[in-house]
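Need a sequence for this fold. Nothing fancy.
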């Protein structure tokens, strides 16, 4: 562990000299537009102005083609000296809306590795671990984000945006980007076990930094500081998540605890992992201590969502083994400490009619509100319930399965009284 702390200190000194100046953020769509040549103009001999040309339709490629296009774009355009061999590590790809890893993102990563081995011999893909990150290699990050091809923010997500970024840890700069749009056929967005089991979702600054490193940058920009300052810790977090996914809960517990000794390891996904492995190992008190930390983090950050499983079409909790009453007690205790009121907001996925979704999301929010008030009676006048139906989906695919479970969340929002 001392080696890990020394590694982090070394890394921080290097990256702090590499990261200077202001950080300008540009979205993936902006970068794609910048790479598109302007349309040709035509002079029309007419007294009346010509009608504007209709915009070209936005299309998505079959999934395999989209991944290969974005990956080839990334490695072909890398702004690096020729004639050298470069080591590359991949920080596992994530869903750009939620930060979750899925069967789809894991499959994409394997496809990229295969392509590099066959078509780009100047790059050597290496394991993502602290020893290799200490050598300051190139690092690849990527997001796979549900989108609406018509550009509607609240429309059903009918495609995915693939975004890859390649960064040089020696210079702290982005050296290449790759983009494509993927069709949904053949995509399995089911979350990997850690993310499938995690019961809460908060705004995580580290994950936001990862996403912005990919989606909010262009070649030549600095790596987002919220990401680069924690990348060494991310290697141990990845090991812990892999241990959890393989049901090696004791190993996962040791790894999550170890990463907390690094100041950069104090992150929501670490405390979420500690909650889950302690639950799996029957350590209820330790689990609830981590639960309280996550709730406190979410409420002070004004974004906390819980994944309560309800009976189909109903507002009562499903009998699935989750300790809902313990969660409610912890939520109520933390809410009582707030110098504010609290909105309990119900949400629904895009399956079914919106009228039913709004009614059901309100009923579920009201049920959770009443449960909280039963735990702490003094909250009766400070807690309200609201149903938003499917108007604020995070995923929006309408699959109504594990892949869009966060769309059926209950969210807790501190408000001024």
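Here you go.
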């Amino acid at each position: 562990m001392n080696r890990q702390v020394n590694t982090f200190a070394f890394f921080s000194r290097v990256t702090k000299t590499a990261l200077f100046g202001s950080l300008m953020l540009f979205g993936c769509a902006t970068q794609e537009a910048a790479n598109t040549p302007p349309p040709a103009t035509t002079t029309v001999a007419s007294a009346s102005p010509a009608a504007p040309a209709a915009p070209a339709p936005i299309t998505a490629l079959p999934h395999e083609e989209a991944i290969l296009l974005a990956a080839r774009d990334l490695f072909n355009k890398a702004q690096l000296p020729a004639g050298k061999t470069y080591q590359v590590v991949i920080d596992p790809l994530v869903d750009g809306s939620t930060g979750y890893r899925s069967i789809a993102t894991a499959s994409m990563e394997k496809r990229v590795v295969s392509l590099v081995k066959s078509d780009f011999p100047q790059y050597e893909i290496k394991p993502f671990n602290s020893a290799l990150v200490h050598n300051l290699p190139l690092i690849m990050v990527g997001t796979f984000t549900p989108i609406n091809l018509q550009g509607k923010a609240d429309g059903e997500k009918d495609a995915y945006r693939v975004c890859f970024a390649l960064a040089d840890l020696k210079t702290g700069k982005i050296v290449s980007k790759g983009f494509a749009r993927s069709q949904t056929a053949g995509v399995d967005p089911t979350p990997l076990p850690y993310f499938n089991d995690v019961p809460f979702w908060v705004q995580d600054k580290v994950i936001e930094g990862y996403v912005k490193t990919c989606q909010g940058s262009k070649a030549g920009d600095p790596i987002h500081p919220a990401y680069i300052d924690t990348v060494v810790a991310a290697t141990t977090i990845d090991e812990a998540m892999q241990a959890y996914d393989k049901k090696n809960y004791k190993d996962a517990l040791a790894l999550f605890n170890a990463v907390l000794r690094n100041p950069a390891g104090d992150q929501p996904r670490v405390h979420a992992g500690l909650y889950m492995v302690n639950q799996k190992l029957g350590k209820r008190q330790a689990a609830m201590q981590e639960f309280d930390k996550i709730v406190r983090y979410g409420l002070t950050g004004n974004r906390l969502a819980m994944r309560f499983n309800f009976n189909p079409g109903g507002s009562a909790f499903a009998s699935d083994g989750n300790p809902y009453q313990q969660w409610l007690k912890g939520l109520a205790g933390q809410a009582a400490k707030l110098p504010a009121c609290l909105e309990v907001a119900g949400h629904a996925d895009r399956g079914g009619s919106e009228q039913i979704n709004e009614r059901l999301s309100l009923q579920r929010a009201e049920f959770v509100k009443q449960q909280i008030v039963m735990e702490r009676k003094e909250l009766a006048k400070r807690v309200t319930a609201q149903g938003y139906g499917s108007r604020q989906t995070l995923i929006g695919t309408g699959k109504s399965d594990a892949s869009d479970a966060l769309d059926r969340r209950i969210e807790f929002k501190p408000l001024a009284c």
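For context: DSSP finds 14 helices and ten strands in the chain.
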